[in-house]
Amino acid sequence: MKYFSKEESSWMYYDWANSAYSIIITTAVFPLFYKSAAMKAGVSAADSTAYLGYTIAITTFILAMLGPILGTIADYRGMKKKFFAFFFAVGIASTASLVFIPSEQWLLLLILYTLTALGFSGSLVFYDAFLIDITNEERMNNVSARGFGLGYIGSTIPFLISIAIIILAQTKTLPLSTVTASKLAFLITAVWWGLFSIPFFKHVHQKYYVEREPRIVRNSFKRLGQTLKHIRSYRALFLFLLAYFFYIDGVGTIISMSTAYGSDLGISSTSLLIILFVTQVVAAPFALLYGRLAEKFTGKKMLYVGIFIYIIVCIYAYFLKTTLDFWILAMLVATSQGGIQALSRSYFAKLVPKQKANEFFGFYNIFGKFASILGPLLVGVTAQMSGNSSSGVFSLILLFIIGLILLKFVPETRADALDRANDKNVGQSDINFPIMTHNNQDIP
Hints:
Blueprint: H1 6-27, H2 29-40, H3 45-74, H4 79-97, H5 106-129, H6 131-134, H7 140-170, H8 178-195, H9 198-203, H10 216-229, H11 235-264, H12 269-297, H13 299-318, H14 323-351, H15 357-386, H16 389-395, H17 397-407, H18 414-424
């Protein structure tokens, strides 16, 4: 792929923008800030990790229940951008508000974190669904992977600025407390996220939609009911979602709880921040590599590779003892976390009926979010029962294995099947595709 259109580039830049939240709030600075606040309040390491897991579970449950309903409404003309803007605004405002929460108020921090996560994850439901509006099926793997690659590269800049401020504050080079330095990181995240989202708002528009009709909400529920009623017509979609439910559970849990896990192992905050920074740098080229390799070997085969690497991660995590071990683990994760997410997004986008993209990405969200409930709960309960966080991470291996097995039964996408057909010099008549019109009607 030699160039990207203005729409493709603007869409990808939202990955660049929101990845600051992913690394600073979800993975790095906020979990450490929260762990420190909980420790000062007398909460044990295992309990504070469990409470963070429970909070993530509650947040994802709320959004999972809203996803398909809001997605169905957003399929109407002009609604997709409005829903995106709403969740984007909630995310930006609540992230900036973290600056004003006293550091000793660990419970209040978790409550506000819930709002930031709702805004962030909610905007991604509609952002992902815009993929079908800004590119064609043959370019989706590369565009999606390039978005994740840009995200990793972009996230390193605010992250590097943030950890530099925190480290300089810790060494007394800057006349700031560590608490104030961490809060500056939250402010930097909100500003970065908002600033680089501007191209998306200017150039990305909804092209596939259902025409508006009276009683939008009521009719949206009816359309959602029709989809569920004719679920057998979408067998490939829901079989993929079932596989996705399991393997993305482990991916999301490892990403969101990695710093809390590292802290429980006794790894210093400074070391964790540096490791996470390097992980972002390493993940960027690997995300792009997954996109390129998917063009050669198909997206499905590259998903197999990513899941297998995560199985190795779970096994290795069980024996983790030193900072060097955590470095090795982080680099293993870096090779595949962007690729597996990018290809899952593009693989699903190729399967969905375009005029129902938001509705189906709502289901994509609900499966991903319900999976994110199971993983953190599993880690939290296991950590409390065993008193050892490593046991919780190791238990995630079962989810990856189930996801791998289910993925084998998912039919290939139209683009992958065509590539395979061309490689084997077979006729297109040998491949059975669903029929889709280019207007607002889909034929099962």
